[in-house]
Amino acid sequence: MKSYELAVALNGSGGSSSSRITMSMSMATATTTQRHFLPFSLLKLKPLSLTPTPFRRTLFPTRTLTAAPRRTVSRPMQPRHVAAKSSQSGGGGGSATSLAQSAVGAVHLAVSLGLIVAADKFLKKAFVEAGIKFPSALFGMFCIFSVLIVLDSTVPSAAAALMSFFEPAFMFIQRWLPLFYVPTLVVLPLAVKDIPAASAAKIGLILVGGWLATLCVAGFTAIAVRKAVKTEMVEAEPMGKPAPFSVVEVWTWTAILLISFVSALYYPTSLGTSARTCLPFLLAATVLGYMVGSGLPSNVKKVFHPIICCALSADLTALAFGYFSKSGIEPVLGYYLTKASSNPGAGDILMGFLGSVILSFSFSMFKQRKLVKRHAAEIFTSVIISTVFSLYSTALVGRLAQLEPSLTVSILPRCITVALALSIVSLFDGANSSLTAAVVVLTGLVGANFVQATLDKLSFRDPIARGIATASSAHGLGTAALSAKEPEALPFCAIAYALNGIFGSILCSIPAVRQSLLAIVG
User: Transmembrane ranges (predicted)?
Assistant: First the structure.
């Protein structure tokens, strides 16, 4: 390299031809020296970063830096192209697999739910033929729960498999549970149209005051018993949450509503009877109202519960159809709930699931069996006392308020879920089942809107007391409202929700108890 520098100097100063020869020889010697002592080619160098810096420009010419990446980048292009093709083909297989899984899931739901509905229909028919007045669905719930307990103690895997098989049906019922309470609320105008205003006001006072009194009795009893037995809290079994409603579901039911509504206007008996023709759009209006109400903000739900939105949607649709068809709203509401199996309406379809709802309680109770066993003392004691208090206090206050005996009997099971309340009033002669269902739903609405604030005012901090007090006074609707914000209280709500109806049904099925209630009513 020294010769190279000398030759440059001579050439720059205008040296002779010998000087230029010396420069050429020196450059050749330098080049030969580089090729001899470098064990690798500069073309094979792969720097970690190709960001140009002064240091890298000095050591590596521009050609070297640009040549190497071209060779290294161009080679992986084919594998990348192949990978893209394989991912595209894999996506098609994944979509096919997803469709297959959806189909299998739909069949699983249909089979499991169909078995529960079939069992309910079979038990109901058997009890009617045998002349047994005890609620058939309640008997079925005891049977399922007992079978699960026996299997769990002998063959646990069989009990787990049975629970897994009926899980889709249970989740379906849980997802649509409030919807099964709606029909009686939709036809509320027909149920109360013959009730005098003074009697309606008395029923309203009994409803609100009775809810608050029952909540206090259940909550304070649970706290007192828990302190007496000194039972420590344990973790509850996790409960699955139903899937939210999708946009596809909303648009599907909207299309059903519009098409069937217009069709019924032009062809009033296209499906054989007016009730069957009105069934599709009235059912769609009910379902859409529930979907819309469920999607409202939480602060709006406090004063406008989804079940109210659901009932209003069905009533407004019935009003619109009555207006355009010139028939009025009352005949359309009559089509909504016909109570005739040969000519069912939308409300009859929904209320047909009430027996299945009761049967599904057995699965939720079995899932929380450890919790029931550990806290059995406070749960059973508070539920029994609150149930007895609710029945007899309603009868007593109704008589003191001089409410008609038939109306008082109809509202006796005001704090018991609709499915069992209707079974209870069927044991009494002259009861108005439509009024019973309406009062039960209204009680649930009062509890759903005000239960959490009331529990805070009463300083009920224990989840056992909060859960039992809510379910014992406002059944399913109150349970749904509280558990949405306090999931730790959900197990106690679910247990008290089921046991409250069970004990109420057992008590009212005893002739001596029924006679004592009728004696108080007068």
Answer: 131-151, 171-192, 204-225, 245-267, 279-297, 345-367, 379-397, 409-428, 434-451, 489-513
